[in-house]
C-alpha cells in the first residue's frame, strides 16, 4: 500500500459517505413535503386576517397540516431506502440547530410582520405569512447543508 | 504496514459498501447496488463476506408484497472502518514531506 493508493481510497470513502449524507438530507428535507409544510404555515399565520370564527378554523387547518406533514415525513423516513442513524445524546450545537429550525417559521413571521407594519402595508399577517412560507421553502438547501454538516460531526464522533 | 490496516476491508467493493453504510442506519440493498454500480450477485457476495466477518448485519422484510433487504454496519464494523480510515490517513501523512505537512492542512476522514 503506497501513499497514492491510500489517498485514492480516502477520496473514495469521502465521496461515498457524501452520497449517503446527500440522500439522507434529501429525504429529511424533501421539497414536496417542505412545500406542503409551507402551505400549512401560510394558512396558519394568515388566519388572523380572516373575519369571525374563520381564523380559528384556519389556525387548526394550517398548523394541523404542518404537524400532519411532519408526522407523515417521520413515518416515511422509517421506511426510506436510507435511514438515519439516530444518536441518543445530541451535541449542544446539534440541539441548537434543531431548536432553531423548529423556531425559524415563527421568527420569519414576526420579522416579516414587523417590516410590513413599519412600511404601513395592508393585511400584514397575510403578507408576513406568505413571506414566511416562501422563506421556509427557499431555506431547504440551507437546512440540508446544516444537517449534512451535523452528520459529518456525528460520523467523526463515531 | 500500519497494524490497523485491514486487508479484508480494503477490497474496493467492501470498502465502498462500508463507506456508504457508515453515515446511516439501515440501508436498502438497492441503494447500495445503484450507488456502487454493481450487480445484485456481486453485491450479495460482498455483503455476505462482510456479514460473515461480523462487520454488517442483514435484515429481510416484506414491504407491500415486495421483498426488501436492508444492511447495517455493526459496532464492530464501524470500529474496524474507522481504524482502517485512520490507518490510510497515517500512510498518506507519513509520505508527506515536512514542508507539505506545514502548508497542507490534513483533510481528515469524516
From TrEMBL, chain A:
The keyword Membrane applies. Keywords: Membrane, Transmembrane, Transmembrane helix. The chain crosses the membrane at residues 24-45, 57-75, 95-115, 127-147. It comes from the Bacteria. This is Uncharacterized protein. It comes from Sphaerisporangium corydalis. The lineage of its organism: Bacteria, Bacillati, Actinomycetota, Actinomycetes, Streptosporangiales.
UniProtKB/TrEMBL annotation, chain B:
Residues 14-92 form the Winged helix DNA-binding domain. SUPFAM superfamilies: Winged helix' DNA-binding domain. Pfam families: HTH_34 (PF13601). It comes from Sphaerisporangium corydalis. InterPro entries: WH-like_DNA-bd_sf, WH_DNA-bd_dom, WH_DNA-bd_sf. The lineage of its organism: Bacteria, Bacillati, Actinomycetota, Actinomycetes, Streptosporangiales. This is Winged helix-turn-helix domain-containing protein. PANTHER family: BSL7504 PROTEIN (PTHR37318:SF1). Gene3D superfamilies: Winged helix-like DNA-binding domain superfamily/Winged helix DNA-binding domain.
